Amino acid sequence: MKKSETEEEVLDIDSLPGVGEATAEKLKESGFDNFLSISVASPADLAEAAGVTEAAARKIIYAAREKFDVGFQSGDDLLRKRDNVIRITTGAKALDNLFGGGVETGGITECYGEYGSGKSSLAHELAVTVQLSREKGGAEGMAVWIDTEGTLRPERMKQIATALGMDVDAVLKNFRGVRAFNSDHQMLLVDKIESLIKKDKLPIKLVIVDSLMGHFRSEFIGRGTLADRQQKINKHLHALLKLSQTYNLAVYVTNQVMSRPDVFFGDPTAAIGGHIVAHMSTVRVYLRKGKKGTRVARMIDAPHLPDTEAIFNITTDGLKDVE
After folding, report:
1. How far is residue 142's CA from residue 228's CA, in Å, rounded to a whole number?
2. What is the pLDDT of residues 135-168, one digit of tens each?
3. What percent helix, strand, coil does the chain show, rounded to 5?
4. Which option is the CATH number for 81-321: 3.40.50.300, 3.10.180.10, 3.60.20.10, 3.20.20.140?
5. CA end-to-end span of the chain, whole Å?
6. Which residue from 2, 231, 269, 319 has the highest number of Cβ atoms inside 10 Å of its Cβ?
7. Buried b (16+ CB within 10 A) or exposed e, 242-255
8. What pLDDT, in 10s, does the model give residues 263-288?
9. What topology does CATH give the domain 5-67?
């Protein structure tokens, strides 16, 4: 029988066999604070977090699965879960329509394109609009920005907030930004976000990583390091996806591009990161420069959206529709 949300809250993880007070504390500090997170964990990850053997970790996982039903759900239940999705406005109606109403919570949205295509501009816009009320296209929450390339500009957020008639001081205070200096630091910062939500009780509804592949691209050079790089990226993206689905927040990542010399017709631009990044991104959008200073967004991949394009402008007041 499936546990209700109330029953799940009453049952604590220290009721699992082999989980004492000290082990439970270690698991909670590592993010394994409920039956679901333990049920879907790998024995290796759980063993590392709890400081136990993999055999003991397997027993804990099997016990959690017995207490919490991880079975299939009906279409009606899944559809009701989709009702909890929040869509954050981009400031431009055409771009919102491309995203199906705005950037969604509960998944990873990746935008890739060459420099100046509008990736960071969209990030600044979302960092402000996420604070708006639901009625105005926001999520009534705050954003956390992991900056890997020095692109974060609070003065840009100030411009956008002013144009939207928001309290500028409140917008800046209701935001967290941090510079990541290498790939390990970048991955560590993602782990710290859960602490901000659970311990500091911050209403985080948007995580921005700008850019996702910058450090990985510079640190792992040559084909000999490709396997290690992809494994590390895979772990990083899984952590971001778990964060988005556990706390119903949006993850927006920007990505760099490369030119494919073997393409003779069409646009030779391709996102870096390979199949790992492509498969892990819930929604994937390609940004490029358009005519007369406009930007063009093209939907590349989404499980529920058609392949369409949207044209928008980047102005002093933020992202706007083309008049």
Report:
1. 34
2. 999 999 999 999 999 999 999 999 999 999 999 9
3. 45, 20, 35
4. 3.40.50.300
5. 56
6. 319
7. ebbebbbbbbbbbb
8. 556 566 788 888 889 899 999 999 99
9. DNA polymerase; domain 1 (1.10.150)
